[in-house]
Design goal:
- Its EC number is 2.7.13.3.
- Residues 213-404 form the Histidine kinase domain.
- Residues 152-205 form the HAMP domain.
- This is histidine kinase.
- The protein is an alpha+beta fold and 404 residues long.
- The protein folds into three domains: 3-141, no CATH class; 200-263, Signal transduction histidine kinase, dimerisation/phosphotransfer (DHp) domain (Helix Hairpins, Orthogonal Bundle), CATH 1.10.287; 271-401, Heat Shock Protein 90.
- It has eight helices and eleven strands.
- Strands 6-8-9-11-10 form a five-stranded mixed β-sheet, covered by helices on one side. Strands 1-4-3-2 form a four-stranded antiparallel β-sheet.
Length: 404
């Protein structure tokens, strides 16, 4: 159930409780007032009837002597005072009633009693209850749509904030909720989300600029190191130094590529190419022993072949570096699947996605943890979907689906 209907249901339930509480209180108060007025009327009638009876010996004000309907509590009063009792019996249109009685003469004398019928007042009370029930139903019917409408306004405002937060979490650092109406908690949440986005955007942009500046500044000295390595006499030292310099140059190029992807400075150059041929070429350029399976009829796709080769090459290298042979690449339709038979992707990588400089390998020197990050960034640039998973029988499976 959405927040809108929860608020509407809560408002309706609250209105029902208030109407029920008011109805019960009014009913109890009115019923008590009717009984007290009937008791007072019966008490006064007995007083007046007793006065007339003692002076004239006649019965007035509807008084009776020892009536058979008299409640048992009033048949034998303990003294000569006036007493009252409630009689809940209903006979036709008579009842419930309030009786008042007083003994005539000394002990053992007859009892003079007066009966006050409350049926009319109680019928009026029933009509009052029915009227309050109808009025409460009408009020509830009118209040519920208003509650739904008000809750809808609140829900739309909260949904706007939620959508903005979702866009920010998806990487859109320019997403903002913008000004919102009112000065309530929702407006405070929206302002806080926008402030969080501003702060996060500044920090990420600062980190990206730092990465790009460092990579750019390292590019020149690394090129100089590579040129200087060419001047060394052939030997083990020259080979070792050249390999390390090549690794350093690869790291710098990867950092530059990531910084350009983060900054949105890359634009794909689309072309119609045979998917199987591009994948086979990318695998062959890695120089690693990899099985490639393509369909007999190659699918022609519109994509950037250079970036596609980059993605496939990184996936294959990652499979050989962190997985185990055999490494298999399968091309079917617009889908490319790279699978190894190693331990599979770490659980945190499947949960949080690739992280920079986090390889998941216990040993040092097994890559810089940028290959999957670059592959994921290039896939997003191409509008493709890169899904990482583990096979049920072991091994990591990377599935690249190109868009139509």
């Amino acid at each position: 159930m959405s927040l809108r209907w929860k608020i509407a249901a809560l408002a309706a339930a609250t209105a029902c409780l208030v109407a029920a509480a008011v109805g019960v209180l009014v009913h109890l108060w009115t019923a008590r007032d009717i009984q007290e007025r009937a008791e007072m009327q019966a008490f006064n009638n007995v007083y007046a009837a007793m006065d007339v009876y003692r002076r004239t010996g006649t019965l007035a004000y509807g008084a009776l002597l020892d009536p058979p309907e008299l409640p048992a509590a009033l048949r034998h009063p303990a003294d000569d005072d006036r007493h009252t009792a409630y009689d809940g019996r209903v006979e036709g249109n008579l009842g419930p009633s309030m009786w008042a009685a007083q003994r005539v003469g000394g002990p053992g004398g007859r009892v003079l009693a007066v009966q006050v019928n409350m049926s009319t007042e109680l019928h009026t009370l029933d009509q009052l209850d029915a009227t309050m029930a109808v009025a409460s139903s009408i009020a509830l019917a009118a209040a519920t749509p208003l509650a739904v409408y008000g809750a809808g306004l609140l829900g739309r405002r909260l949904r706007r904030v939620s959508e903005t937060a979702g866009r920010i979490s998806a990487g859109d650092l320019d997403a903002r909720t913008g000004p919102t109406k009112g000065r309530d908690e929702v407006a405070d949440i929206a302002a806080t989300v926008d402030l969080m986005a501003d702060t996060l955007g500044r920090r990420l942009r600062s980190e990206r600029r730092f990465t790009a500046d460092v990579a750019h500044e390292l590019r020149t000295p690394v090129g100089g190191l590579l040129a200087a390595a060419d001047l060394l006499p052939p030997g083990e030292t020259e080979d070792l130094l050249r390999a390390r310099v090549r690794d350093l140059r690869g790291l710098v190029e990867d950092l530059l590529e990531i910084s350009r992807l983060d900054a949105g400075a890359e634009q794909p150059a689309h072309a119609h190419v045979p998917l199987g041929a591009v994948v086979s070429e990318a695998v062959s350029r890695t120089g690693l022993d990899t099985d490639v399976t393509t369909a007999q009829t190659m699918e022609t796709v519109e994509t950037d072949p250079r970036r596609l080769e980059r993605i496939v090459g990184n996936l294959v290298v990652n499979a050989h570096r962190h997985g185990d042979t055999p490494v298999q690449v399968t091309v079917e339709g617009r889908t490319v699947v790279v699978r190894d038979h190693g331990p599979g992707f770490p659980p945190d990588l499947l949960r949080d996605g690739p992280r920079r400089f986090h390889t998941g390998a216990k040993e040092r020197g097994s890559g810089h943890g940028l290959g999957l990050t670059i592959a994921l960034g290039q896939a997003r640039l191409l509008g493709a979907e890169l899904h990482l998973a583990n096979a049920p029988d072991g091994g990591a499976v990377a599935t690249l689906r190109l868009p139509h």
